[in-house]
Amino acid sequence: MVHDILITNIKGLVQVRDQHPAMLTGKLMSELPILSNAFLGISNGLIHSYGLMEQRPSGIKAIQTIDAAGKFVLPSFIDSHTHLVFATTREEEFVMKIKGATYEEIAAQGGGILNSAEKLQAISEDELFHKSVSRAWEIIRTGTGAVEIKSGYGLTTQDEIKMLRVARRIGRETPLMVKTTFLGAHAIPRNIEKATYIDQIINEMMPAIAEENLADYIDVFCEHGFFSMDETERIVEHGKKYGMIPRIHANQLNRSGGVQIGVKTGAISVDHLENIGEEEIQMLMNSATMPVTLPGAAFFLNLPFTPARKMIDAGLPIAIASDYNPGSAPSGNMPLMISLACIKMKMTPEEAINAATINTAYTLGLSATHGTITLGKIANVFITESISSLASIPYRFGSNPVGQVVLNGKLIDL
What we know:
Layout: E1 2-14, E2 34-43, E3 46-52, E4 61-67, E5 72-75, E6 77-79, H1 91-98, H2 103-108, H3 113-121, H4 125-141, E7 144-150, H5 157-173, E8 177-185, H6 194-211, E9 217-222, H7 229-241, E10 245-250, H8 258-264, E11 269-272, H9 278-285, E12 290-293, H10 295-301, H11 308-313, E13 319-320, H12 334-345, H13 349-355, H14 358-363, E14 381-384, H15 392-395, E15 402-407, E16 410-411
Parallel strand pairs: 1-4, 1-5, 6-7, 7-8, 8-9, 9-10, 10-11, 11-12, 12-13
Antiparallel strand pairs: 1-2, 2-3, 5-14, 14-15, 15-16
Helix pairs in contact: 4-5, 5-6, 6-7, 7-8
C-alpha cells in the first residue's frame, strides 16, 4: 500500500477511537485515548491506517512522509458557532466597553449588531467574501478544520442571502468543511416593528434562503430585548418546515428561556449558557440537545463563564466553540478557547479537547466523518510543534501549538 501521506514517530496520536461515539457525557468526557510512538497513514483524503510504530506493517510506503517525533497529532478542531462573515471590526465599541459601557448600552447607542449590519449592507458580495475568507485561513492556521458560519448581520432578505452565499463560497474555495446557519433573528432593524420583521423572516427570508439551499440550520438570539421565548419558538418551528435544524443563542445575558425552547423544539444545540441554573441543567439531562459554551465571549464581555464543571459533574456533555464575531468575541483561535475552558471553567485538557472535537462534531452532524482518529473518516488532522505534553496546549495560552495542517488528506500550505 502506498499512502498519500504517512506521519511517523508521533509522540502522541490523540483521540484514537475504533468506534466513535456520537457524543461524550459526564465522566466519559475525561477519557481521551492516545497512542504513543505511533504512525498515521492517509490515502484518498481518508484515514487509512494507524497504530504503534513497532507494529507498522513492513513495506508501507508513502508519497510524502512526515516525521512527527516529539509532536502530537490531533483531529482538527470543529468550531460549531461562529459569525466570521462580517464587513469590519468594531474596535470603537471595545474602547466603550473598557470605559464601562454595557452590551445593552452600546446597542442602544446604535452599536452592536446593527452597526455590523449597516457596514455589511454597504458592501458587495465579492468584497464581503474577500474580507471574510482571510478569517477562514486564520482559523485553519490554529487547527480548525470544520466550522459553522451564521448569517445575522444582514437583517434584510438580500443581505442575509449575501452572507450565506459567502459562507457557502468559503466552503467551496477553502479546505474547510463549512455548515451554515440562518440567523435573521439576531436583532431588530431600525425603523421597523418587531412583529413586522418577524413576519419578514418567516415569509420572505426563509423561502428565499431555502430556494437556494443556503442554510443547514436556523438560529435565534433568544434574549431580553431581542427575541422572546414565544417568538423564538415560532421562528424555529417555521425554519424546521424548510429543513433547517434549530440551534439557539441561549442564556447569554440572562436566564432567557432559550434552553427551554431549545429542548422543546429539538434544537441540536443551545449556545452560550453564561446564565444557567438547575432547571436548565435538568432539562438538558433529558434531551439530545448539546450545551455549547463560548468562553471567548464570556472573556471579552467580562460575563460569568458557563459552569462547565458543574454541568459535566451532573452528567451532561459540553461542547466548546469560539463565537468568532466582531463585537463580543473577535477571535477564532480554538487553542485559546481550550485554554479559557481549562483556566476559567475548570475543565481538564482531556475534557476540553473532547469538547472541541467529538462534541462539536455532533452539533454539526459530522460525527460519522470528523472529530476522531477513526478508519475511514476524513483526514482532517494537525501536527503540533514539539511540546512536552498534551496539557501544553491549554497551558501555553495565546500561543499557537499548530505546526502543520492536513485537511481532506492534503498538507496545507500555511
